[in-house]
Specification:
The chain is of the alpha+beta class. About 40% of the residues lie in helices and about 20% in strands. The strands form 2 sheets. Strands 11-8-5-10-3-2-12 form a 7-stranded antiparallel sheet. Strands 1-4-9-6-7 form a 5-stranded antiparallel sheet. It starts with a strand and ends with a strand.
Length: about 300
């Protein structure tokens, strides 16, 4: 990004940066100048195609990208794309939290992720409130998360909450009412919490939530997907996170496949290759690589 002060004063920014495998977090406060940050075509060529979810805490924030101009109110959020030209503007005396997420980690769960770029998420969104609370309590505190296993779980939780916040629940609200939207979010949370159960099924989830399996199918149809697709893709995403984590390189592919809920290793291998274009063994970090398995401490700059 090309950064510049919004006011005719020396650029000033205070921020805390956290880095976890597959997740970047910036907690920023502007005290006097505000800023404009632009992503040009040259920066896209040399940069990343990560997705950035910005949550405005106080003040005013505006984003221009893909022909959309959106201004946020406190508590609202917006998704930005690192692979598209755009700019953001933060007014003086404003604060925000920005989450940087790999695009490949979100696509299997949200095939329509590009459609969500530039769309604001309302402060009334329950998944967004849960995400904001989780990030504030776990990632914005003074003590960083240093355990590799805890880091993996924290990143997984953030991915899951982002996916819920960005899901097309508004469509459910208009077709079936707010109760259905809340129910689908609860079903998704239940699925994500029990991915490792190879016997997970529509009937099992329906029984736990006091509804019919057919109703579950209807809820997922509104989002143009199915229960089976959601479960399969969520398992593949979780497996990919573990396989690409250098700190977990000693884990066997078989144990990872079973941990995320696949009961047939050959079936897992076929689905993984179809989704990611490579076998599980081909995306693993080099065994000879030296890796420091700890998060970067919070730093102010």
């Amino acid at each position: 990004m090309d950064w510049s002060a919004l006011l005719d004063r020396p650029f000033q920014q205070r921020a805390i940066v956290r880095g976890l495998p597959g997740l970047g977090v910036v907690i920023g406060t502007q005290t006097s100048t505000g800023f404009v940050a632009r992503r040009t075509s040259e920066l896209i060529t040399a940069g990343t195609d990560d997705l950035v979810l910005t949550i405005l805490q106080t003040g005013r924030f505006m984003q221009r990208q893909l022909g959309r101009e959106t201004e946020l109110a406190p508590g609202e959020a917006i998704l930005g794309s690192g692979s598209d030209v755009g700019e953001v503007m933060l007014q003086p005396n404003s604060s925000f939290v920005a989450l940087s997420l790999p695009r490949h980690a979100m696509i299997p769960v949200l095939a329509y992720i590009q459609d969500r770029v530039g769309a604001s998420l309302p402060a009334s969104s329950e998944p967004l409130r849960l995400l904001t609370s989780y990030v504030s309590n776990v990632l914005c505190g003074a003590a960083p998360v240093t355990s590799p296993i805890l880091q993996q779980r924290v990143v997984s939780h953030v991915y899951d909450l982002v996916a819920l916040a960005l899901s097309r629940s508004p469509g459910i609200n208009s077709l079936h009412g707010g109760t259905a939207a809340a129910r689908l979010n609860a079903i998704k949370s239940d699925i994500l919490a029990h991915l490792g159960d190879g016997s997970l099924s529509e009937s099992m989830i329906a029984s736990r939530h006091g509804i019919t399996a057919r109703y579950i199918r209807l809820l997922f149809q509104v989002e143009e997907t199915t229960f089976s697709d959601f479960v399969r893709n969520a398992r593949l995403v979780r497996a990919h996170r573990i396989l690409t984590d250098p700190c977990l390189s000693e884990r066997t592919i078989t144990s990872i496949a079973y941990e995320v809920g696949f009961c047939d290793l050959s079936h897992f291998n076929r689905l993984f290759r179809k989704t990611y274009g490579a076998r599980p063994s081909e995306i693993r970090p080099c065994k000879g690589a030296r890796v420091l398995c700890s998060t970067r401490p919070g730093e102010e700059r």
